[in-house]
Design goal:
The complex is a heterodimer of chains A (about 375) and B (about 240). With about 375 residues, chain A is α/β, with parallel strands linked by helices. Helix content of chain A is about 70%, strand content about 5%. Chain B has a domain of about 70 residues. In chain B, α3 crosses α4. The chains are: A alpha/beta (about 375), B alpha/beta (about 240).
């Protein structure tokens, strides 16, 4: 135990004397969270629209008011002719154009039918789609409120999004970011710190000493369990305070699952450092083989369901995917272990697999 | 100060990597308290043998006992009784002199007071008192080498293995380093040393010379020079390597 304590103390010296390590450990979570939170947002707020309204009657004005007061849109300007629509888009800022037909209220009164054209700027298809949906939703809402006295029978589907009612991106990327950063810190940092000892030749000295290899590895990994755990807490607290990420389930269970995930990533880091002797290679493997798949294949940014078959199979081999499922389930749905035991077991399985491979590889090298 | 007691016994040690035979039936003893030079050209199998003796790797076959313990069954005991210094003077750059000493003392299970008193004595002997809190990266190479050696024998091992301990340092520092080796041997520590410098071979009590995985000569430097009719160990080595 005395040996172990001395070992861990030394490991902390390494970490706290290297400002780059510190920067990655504590700067990264905050910076990433802010980046993903503010830059990579796919929510719509204050999208600029132009309106061409030749009829200027009570109905069109009411509809325009409703749209502009929804919070999704702000009026760039009113157009005086249809010809101005395209130049307005071409200037770039305008995302949506709303065109009423002339004599709108009158036609609606007489024939029960009037036309509005909604034109979206589909050079950004996702945004355009969403904006058009929002706008037509607002218009049909208005129609319903107008008609409710006249038409007796109507089927109005009321769509409600469960667990993330406002379709906020933050609910998606906080779990994704946790999966990514914990993986990065645990796997990358441990594999770097172990390969560093190999490069320096100090690993030989440690192996010649009476410390067992398992003690050496645990001693090297232990500080990172601790630090990764702090990082997980930083992300959770920032997510909650800055972005209002909910945490409906048990905090204890969430931390426990995070601990399991950290152990999984650490065992992966150990495996990487067993494969290579150089810090550079360890870094490349960690970044290319861990980071990219975590971002692309874990369902963090791109939905797994939309990928071609072979990619979906690959996705199932990505440990972060299961962690993301688990924490979303706990945070957003408030579920307990009875809903996530399946994924938990898979994570335990991955951990065991990576550790077994490392031990096997280590024995081969020793023989 | 060599004694008749064997502290390392190697019988028919064979180490194969696939079809390549790195150590081909090595048989030798090292006496307690002697300075044993383990020489050989690059790739002759020195490092492989030293790794086996230190418990970093297992032999393919043969009997090996180090410090009186069998390396297969009593590995823990072997490790407690040996010290090791590699050619890279492996110390942690970002730790101070004292922190390095404390760390290596710690992994050999020394108590705090013990570490402190030994560290103090060590730094006094080396004249390092002022450098106690300096980072290793800020001290000269020669100091690192002396410190690495002192750290390797901090836990009073029975044997210390030195793998090319004088690589890359100037002749004066090398000479000083050998004074330290003599001191350690005088204190009863057996020194097992590999080197490329043939003048250093002359300082050893006995030397073995490996060629292509086999020990082709083993005796005192004087006897070897007589036997091969050579004025220096350098000549002996060249004659052997060319034979």
């Amino acid at each position: 135990m005395r040996r172990f304590r001395g070992f861990v103390v030394k490991e902390f010296y390494h970490i706290f004397r290297d400002y780059r390590t510190l920067l990655i450990l504590f700067g990264m979570p905050a910076i990433q969270l802010m980046l993903f939170g503010y830059v990579l947002t796919n929510e719509i707020k204050d999208a600029k629209i132009v309106i061409y309204d030749p009829s200027r009657d009570v109905v069109t004005r009411k509809i325009s008011d409703k749209i502009l007061s929804s919070g999704y849109f702000v009026l760039e300007r009113n157009l005086v002719s249809v010809a101005e629509i395209e130049p307005a888009f071409k200037q770039g800022d305008v995302k949506l154009a709303l065109i009423y037909e002339p004599g709108f209220a009158g036609k609606l009164e007489k024939t029960g039918k009037a036309h509005i054209q909604i034109i979206g700027d589909a050079s950004d298809p996702n945004t355009a789609n969403m904006l058009v949906n929002y706008a037509s939703g607002i218009i049909s809402n208005y129609l319903v409120s107008m008609n409710s006295k006249k038409v007796p029978l109507q089927i109005i589907p009321e769509v409600r999004m469960m667990y993330n009612g406002e379709l906020k991106g933050v609910y998606m990327f906080v779990p994704g970011l946790m999966a990514m950063l914990l993986m990065l810190i645990s796997a990358l940092m441990t594999s770097l710190s172990i390969t560093k000892e190999k490069e320096l030749g100090t690993m030989e000295l440690l192996l010649v000493s009476p410390m067992r290899p398992s003690q050496i590895i645990i001693g090297k990994v232990f500080p990172y369990v601790f630090l990764a755990f702090i990082d997980a807490c930083i992300i959770l607290v920032l997510g909650k305070l800055v972005f209002g990420m909910p945490l409906l389930g048990s905090v204890f269970l969430l931390l426990l699952e995070s601990f399991l995930y950290i152990c999984m990533a650490l065992s992966l880091g150990i495996l990487i450092s067993n494969i290579t002797n150089s810090q550079q290679v360890a870094m490349m493997i960690s970044l290319v083989a861990l980071m990219l798949p975590t971002i692309l294949l874990s369902g963090f940014i791109f939905p797994v369901e939309n990928m071609p078959g072979i990619m979906q199979v690959l996705c199932h081999l990505m440990p972060p995917k299961y962690y993301i499922i688990i924490i979303k389930s706990i945070m957003l749905q408030g579920n307990g272990i009875e809903y996530v035991w399946n994924e938990t077991l898979i994570l335990i399985g991955f951990t065991a697999l990576f550790l077994a491979l490392s031990i096997k590889k280590f024995k081969v090298r020793l023989a | 100060m060599p004694t008749p007691v064997n502290i390392i016994t190697v019988r028919n040690l064979v180490k194969k990597f696939g079809s390549f035979i790195a150590n081909d039936h090595l048989t030798f003893e090292v006496k307690k308290g002697e300075i044993f030079g383990f020489l050989g050209a690059n790739g002759a199998g020195k490092t492989t043998a030293i790794k086996i003796l230190c418990g970093l790797s297992y032999p393919t076959s043969g009997e090996v006992s180090v410090a009186g313990f069998d390396i297969y069954s009593r590995r823990e005991q072997v490790k407690k009784n040996i010290g090791y210094m590699s050619q890279r003077f492996s110390l942690y750059d970002d730790l101070t002199v004292f922190e390095n000493i404390r760390f290596y003392g710690g992994i050999y299970g020394l108590r705090k007071q013990e570490i402190n008193s030994r560290a103090h004595a060590l730094m006094q002997r080396l004249g390092f008192e002022d450098a106690r809190n300096k980072l290793i990266r800020d001290i000269p190479l020669g100091w690192k080498q002396k410190l690495a050696f002192s750290v390797a024998i901090l836990h009073n091992p029975k044997i210390v293995f030195l793998d090319e301990p004088t690589g890359g340092v100037d002749p004066i520092t090398r000479r000083q380093f050998w004074d330290m080796i003599y001191e350690a041997a005088h204190d009863g520590i057996t020194v097992f040393v590999t080197t490329h410098y043939m003048d250093e071979a002359e300082y050893c009590d006995r030397v073995s010379i490996m060629v292509d995985g086999k020990i082709s000569a083993l005796d005192t430097p004087e006897n070897l020079k007589l036997k091969f009719d050579a004025p220096s160990m350098n000549e002996v080595f060249i004659k052997l390597a060319r034979a």
